[in-house]
Structures
1.
Amino acid sequence: MLQPPHSSLQVAAVPAQRVPVRDRDQDAPWHTEAVCRRDEAGLFFAPSKEPTAARLSREQAAKRVCSGCPVMVECREHALLQPEPYGVWGGLTAAERRVVLARRRRRDLELKKAARSAERIAAAG
Ligand code: SF4
């Protein structure tokens, strides 16, 4: 598993400017531009036995950091593709990523069904 950019990183005091994807060096690893390169505030991963209210507050703070991050899309896709089971990645909590993944699985199933139907119709036609 790739080390999350925010595993030993700190939230930057000043959010990074959004940099259009086309203007970035496409060969550079996305996490080099992570706003959360040092998460000394511990926003992105839950400490053990974190109360629910504290978790929700921490996650909202992490999401605010993500919203100003120039690599949010790359980070989110990474976390979905791995998949990363813990923490806030790309502005999504682990529970939110599970929902996105479930939707993608349903969509893929529907697309496969539609493709099979189209093949049957073409074969019969
Ligand atoms: S989107 Fe959020 S978690 Fe991902 S690199 Fe940026 S600040 Fe870190």
2.
Amino acid sequence: MVTDSQQGTRIDEIAPDIYRIHTPVQLPGGQAFSFNQYLLVDDDALLFHTGPRKMFPLVSEAIARVLPLQRLRWIGLSHVEADECGAMNEFLAAAPQATPLCGQVAALVSVNDLADRPAHALADGETLSLGRHAVRWFDTPHTPHGWECGLMLDTTTRTFFCGDLFTQPGTGDLPLCESDILGPSEAFRQAMDYFAHAPQTATTLQRLADQMPHTLACMHGSAWHGDAGALLRALATRLTAPASEAAAQG
Ligand SMILES: [Fe+2]
Ligand SMILES: [Fe+2]
């Protein structure tokens, strides 16, 4: 459903109770790109990522088509960047029951200072019940950004909120796809080099793959449905391939 015809913001259900809020943008230089946030509707509704602060009117308008903003209970984030949590305080003001939700390092280093209310920090492997759904937190330091980085899985639908992993260029109009996203995201990574280069990245990705997710809720581009464990393992292989091999695959 399109919620802002001028900007092209839309909201679509990509898994049971899980909605992708999607806004296409143009990067400086004219390249098409997109920002997604995900809304999980449950007794305790969760928004995973707020979008940039300046996008708050578009994102909040889209959410309001599905549930009143005041019903948001958790505002989750992977790591501290503008597209992950730039509108945190706007959402905390609009939803009096809402609490920032992040990993322990993010709470300690940034969120408890930047956010207008203290964060609820999840430990690595900890599960939080939302009602019908539950989410499990995974610390993923430097995968792909920041020491404080972490990601979460909805264990009920096995939807993995994979943040900046599998970032795709382009407008990402399709809410959910089953076509190849590894190729486009790897081509984009080679051009932009937006990953931290940490020694434990492959191990981190293997651990996420072991959770056997069915759906990848990507932050940039289309969400993806399929054997997401295999795709995470393929990404781990690509990230650890020697530079010469990566160029050949690229
Ligand atoms: Fe990021
Ligand atoms: Fe991002």
